[in-house]
Amino acid sequence: MDLVLRLEQNGSHSLVLDGQALTCAIGTGGIRQEKREGDGATPVGHFPFRRIFYRADRLPQPVGCPDAIPITADHGWSDDPADPTRYNRLVTLPYPHSHERLMRADAVYDVIVELGYNDAPPVPSHGSAIFMHVARPDYSGTEGCIALALADLLRILERTAGSGAVIVPAGLAGKTGPS
Q1: What is the pTM of this model?
Q2: Dmax of the chain from CA atoms?
């Protein structure tokens, strides 16, 4: 099932699931056709769900996602374009290159859907760690990810059985800032 990102009349963004608009946050750098590491932009494209990760110490396994992976303290994600072998990949911490830690103190990564962006194979500097994850309460901008309320994200996973895609239309590039 494809979830299409759209710009609402009030300037916010949403993903459409079964005809219903689910409010979401996008990158602080807006939407861009040409994504670069660190630009904070959400890339244009069609991004299939890859793996689903969740905080088993905070939540039950997402319904309909029997292969969801519990996040552990040693899970990280390489965001270092100089990393010769693991850029834009799951890594085990400690890790010698720049990375994000998946087990965070806040709730933003309590559920993560790895989106198929720049991963076949990863091209250094074209952006990493484009996820669909939990939004902050104020829906403030992300580093390029798409973020939704936890209940909406879990509903998407249940409805899609963890198999779907996010479509960010090219027509939104350069026209919108963050939600």
Answers
A1: 0.96
A2: 45
